[in-house]
Each structure stands twice: as structure tokens, then as C-alpha cells.
Amino acid sequence: SRGAEVPGRGLSGYLSVEAVRARLAATSKGAALRELAELLARTGRVTDVDALVRAAQAREEQGTTGLGEGIAVPHAKTGAVTAPVVGFARSAEGVEWGSPDGTRARLIFMIAVPEAVAGDDHLRILAMLSRRLMDAEFRARLLAAEDAGAIARVLAEVA
């Protein structure tokens, strides 16, 4: 794809290991959105965690971001982030996310982009992720990776 030639603009341009959590503590969607927003704040790209949570919740109210196959990709456009950023958390038990196939979300990505540049950035990230997440073997590797560093290495392949 066209975007793949740009160095550092694969998923690793947006996701760093400090925004990866191998064990999500949250058991509800609302708590998971907050935990992910706090995770994103560790990157220094979030100025207001509460505003990010509100924006992500507002997006969920328009329709679930549960994609099925145990995947959810909550996302938000908000002035509470200074640059596009992605976080990831894995849930052992899964979180009820209203996915079309009824699966609980175990692989949860949060995408947050500034209001001003929202346009294609979050759609490109979403497309990048969706392509890889349709691959069962890739999902299995994400579920099997033993810690945040190992998860980040698997995710670094997403381009």
C-alpha cells in the first residue's frame, strides 16, 4: 500500500511499548476505556484523560467498536490528544463489547487522534490494524505473547 513506504508510519509510528498492557484489569467496557486512556497518557500525547474517555464513550454510543473475533478498536477524535496515538491491552477473560459475533473483546486497541488532524490518520491506522487482525495466526500470536515487550514486537509488524 502507498503508506507503507513512509518510514516510521507503520503502527510503530503510533504505538510504543509503554502504551501496551498484557493484562487488562478492567472487566467492563467503561472501565476498559478508562484504563486504555490512562495507558495512552503514559506516552505524553494525552493532555486530558477524562476528555479522552468521554470522547471514546461518545463514539461507542454511535455504534459498537467491537469488530468480532475477540477484537475491539475503540477510537476518539479529541482536542485532549496532541498527536495520533495507539494503545493496546489484552484481556484474559474478555470484555463484553457488543461485537456483532457475540465474542468478548480480548484484543483491545484504542486509537486517539487530535480533532484538527482527525481526517485520514485514524482511518489509516484502523485499516492497517484491520488487515492484520483478520489473520487468525496473527491474533493467536498476540494472545500468546508473554509480556508487553513481546506484544509490542508482534505489533511492530503491522504496516
Automatic annotation (TrEMBL):
It comes from the Bacteria. One of its GO terms (molecular function) is protein-N(PI)-phosphohistidine-sugar phosphotransferase activity. Keywords: Phosphoprotein, Phosphotransferase system, Sugar transport, Transferase, Transport. Pfam families: PTS_EIIA_2 (PF00359). CDD domains: PTS_IIA_fru. GO terms for cellular component: cytoplasm; membrane. The keyword Magnesium does not apply. Residues 13-158 form the PTS EIIA type-2 domain. The keyword Phosphoprotein applies. GO terms for biological process: phosphoenolpyruvate-dependent sugar phosphotransferase system. SUPFAM superfamilies: Phoshotransferase/anion transport protein. Gene3D superfamilies: Mannitol-specific EII, Chain A. It is found in: Cytoplasm. Its main location: cytoplasm. NCBIfam families: fruA (TIGR00848). This is PTS fructose transporter subunit IIC. It comes from Streptomyces palmae.
